[in-house]
Design goal:
The strands form four sheets. Strands 1, 2, 12, 13, 14, 15, 16, 17 and 18 form a nine-stranded mixed sheet that branches. Strands 4-3-6-9 form a four-stranded mixed sheet, with no helix packed on it. The protein has a three-stranded mixed sheet with strand order 5-11-10, with no helix packed on it. It is globular and about 50 Å long. It has one helix at about 5-20, and strands at about 30-35, 45-50, 60-65, 70, 75-80, 85-90, 95-100, 105-110, 115-120, 125-130, 140-145, 150-155, 160-165, 170-175, 180-185, 190, 200, 200-205. The protein starts with a helix and ends with a strand. It is mainly beta. The protein folds into two domains: about 25-55 and about 150-205, Immunoglobulin-like (Sandwich); about 55-145, Cupredoxins -  blue copper proteins (Immunoglobulin-like), CATH 2.60.40.420.
Length: about 210
């Protein structure tokens, strides 16, 4: 390898380490179960690493659908700077607005149409934006803006799995919202080793 080629390779490697915190494919998973105190279902809880070293680019555009008079998914976590495409799949017109942070109203549109919104960086992640429809007051959902891509949403049994986590020491947190209440978990430390998955269970209280 020439001196110039070696220099360029070192720059690329340094940039990769700065973004992901590791060099190569040595990653693992964090999984476990979330219990939401007092609720019958443990679905739609957000589990995330509070702060990971490095900087993370926005993810590819993702979709939040309006179908059968529901927002799908109900909870959508994204890295700051990611664009969400709001699709109306119902024969009825739908609207999307949020009363949170910088507040927005994307208007009302017909079946098959989409409107986009790019979620900016926030001072203290997660910044959770409630999604509402002015046409149908019963509809609600949440977009959670995070600092890094190490997050997951629980299934009905409360199970979650966060993949592709570089080895290191982190703090894991949890969040859940209903129409009237917000729930949080006491943050827990977790050490990720590439040789075996980590398991962390969380309890969310009001």
């Amino acid at each position: 390898m020439s001196r110039r080629a070696g220099f360029l390779a070192a720059i690329v490697a340094a940039a990769f380490i700065g973004r992901t915190g590791t060099l190569g494919g040595a990653v693992s998973t964090i999984s476990g179960t979330v219990t939401i105190t007092g609720l019958a279902s443990n679905a739609n809880a957000l589990v995330y690493i509070q702060e990971a070293p490095g900087t993370f680019p926005p993810g590819a555009p993702v979709e939040m659908n309006q179908r059968a008079f529901q927002f799908i998914p109900h909870v959508l976590p994204v890295v700051a700077g990611t664009t969400v495409k709001f699709l109306n799949s119902d024969p009825s017109p739908h609207n999307v607005f949020s009363p949170d942070y910088e507040k927005y109203d994307l208007g009302t549109w017909q079946q098959g149409q989409t409107k986009d919104y790019t979620f900016p960086e926030c001072a203290k992640p997660p910044c959770v934006y409630t999604q509402l429809c002015r046409v149908h007051a019963e509809m609600d959902a949440y977009v959670a803006v995070l600092q890094n891509p190490y997050f997951a949403v629980t299934d009905r049994k409360g199970h979650y799995e966060i993949g592709n986590v570089p080895p290191g020491s982190y703090t894991l947190a949890g969040w859940y919202a209903s129409r009237t209440r917000r729930y949080k978990a006491r943050p827990k430390p977790v050490t990720v080793d590439a040789s075996e998955p980590a398991t962390v269970d969380l309890v969310l209280d009001r």
